[in-house]
């Protein structure tokens, strides 16, 4: 009897152990940290080389260069600082003098006519630059306030023109303006009232304090979300990269397959004129049909173009879900001639391609002529993600771009906060 | 002796059934996870930094089962105003799932990606839904 009871317990224990064992085995294999190898470093075309200009800064978003300094906007505070100034005093390609100011998170940063502009996720600030290039942080003035911030797509990218205006992206706090955001089968609000105060680019005065929506102009609309934007000085115009919509097949499984969602819609490159409407949320761009197609939330079936023919098309279409976060037109003389006036675009890398292979953790180049793309894109800098090209495990994710006075290109990463300085030697 | 034998056999069967049941639930949960959850939370449960919450090391995932059921049924609304949550995308509600499907998904998520929390039963899902109403 005693023997039997012991056996009973033993059986029970073995049974439970085998259960638990199965539970613990799977995750160990799935996390796979032990198999991860270190990144071998960023790859570049022949003749180019990169130095790690700064590292582990935190969520380094947009960057801008001025008078020997690289300014970095952080989306999490580094020792209480939301803006860092990086200076390379001995000119060895590595920043050795770091200071900072501005105790708010955000993405946008720009410099124009002796002022530095930076954005939180609600407001835009302006600071006076001293002659030596340092910032008088006490001079900070809030020039725009109270922009829509409902977490989703809340980063406020900024750029200035040559006529005293500043342009601010206000992303739509929504995927496709559904009545219930991102919920399968939920139809689109019609009209999409989000467009009244978001889903577009707003233009404000660069020097006027405390401006609200009523003081600005909705410069362009029908834009889901923009992170990368730049002013092209050659043609005096605004350009930007849109983050296209997600989840076509998950939201409308009767109309789209997984394969279609992985490649739709294109990440669109816009040339923006005042008054343009790019179609979100009613339309998206299908690069195969080369057309703006009606979104399923508004009755679309993947082919119909109802209500979309008058919407502004992109000047270039990139693969879906790559998440373009940085755009800069290269005006330097250091790089070979073909790069002059062309566009570099920093892609953050996809997540909405799951369960298929993620893509787009890279910086690409598009040649330009007279303000329009003059050839296909090529991958310029790659291998940021390292061994695992997934959003959770990528070593680095490209975000911001800047050009120094001597024509070097800076690339920021917001996964760990690394900054690369890319140079060219014949 | 005969009674002991019966008890032994019974106990063994119970252990096997509960073990097999849990395993079955996990396998179903994995399939359902791929359909309803993986698009945002990713195959590895790590989510998208700053955008879609990770299910690895999450106090919600390892925590109160009632709350977890409410999160699946209601989506982001179930979080209320938790200041520690700072993910940019909203989580959609998934109201059409059966109690068994919710139990399977939660059992899978709580015991995968390095998580080692207990299974969620159909009874617990029912009970959580009643508390919500």
Describe, in plain words, how this protein is organized in 3D:
The complex is a heterodimer of chains A (about 425) and B (about 130). Chain A has about 425 residues and is mostly beta strands. About 10% of the residues of chain A have low confidence. At the A-B interface, helix 1 of A face helix 1 and helix 2 of B.
Oligomer: heterodimer
Integer average pLDDT of chain A: 91
Number of helices of chain A: 3
Structural class of chain A: mainly beta
Unreliable spans of chain B are none
Binned strand content of chain A: 35-45%
Strand ordering within the main sheet of chain A: 1-28-27-26
End-to-end separation of chain B in angstroms reads 51 Å
Rg of chain B, nearest Å: 17 Å
How many extended strands of chain B?
0
Mean of residue pLDDT of chain B? Answer: 86
Rg of chain A, nearest Å: 24 Å
Q: How much helicity do the residues of chain B have?
A: 55-70%
Largest interface: A-B, 41 and 46 residues
**What characterizes the major β-sheet of chain A?**
4 strands, antiparallel
What's this entry about, in short?
The complex is a heterodimer of chains A (426) and B (133). Chain A is mainly beta and 426 residues long. Helix content of chain A is 9%, strand content 35%.
Structural topology:
The complex is a heterodimer of chains A (426) and B (133).
Chain A lengths: L1 H30 L16 E7 L5 E7 L2 E10 L2 E7 L9 E5 L7 E4 L2 E5 L4 E6 L5 E10 L13 E3 L4 E6 L29 E6 L11 E5 L4 E7 L4 E6 L5 H4 L6 H6 L3 E6 L10 E4 L4 E4 L21 E3 L5 E6 L13 E5 L15 E4 L1 E2 L2 E2 L4 E4 L16 E6 L5 E5 L5 E6 L2
Antiparallel strand pairs in A: 1-28, 2-3, 3-4, 4-5, 6-7, 7-8, 8-9, 10-11, 11-12, 12-13, 14-15, 15-16, 16-19, 17-18, 20-21, 21-22, 22-25, 23-24, 26-27, 27-28
Chain B lengths: L1 H35 L1 H4 L17 H4 L2 H10 L24 H12 L11 H11 L1
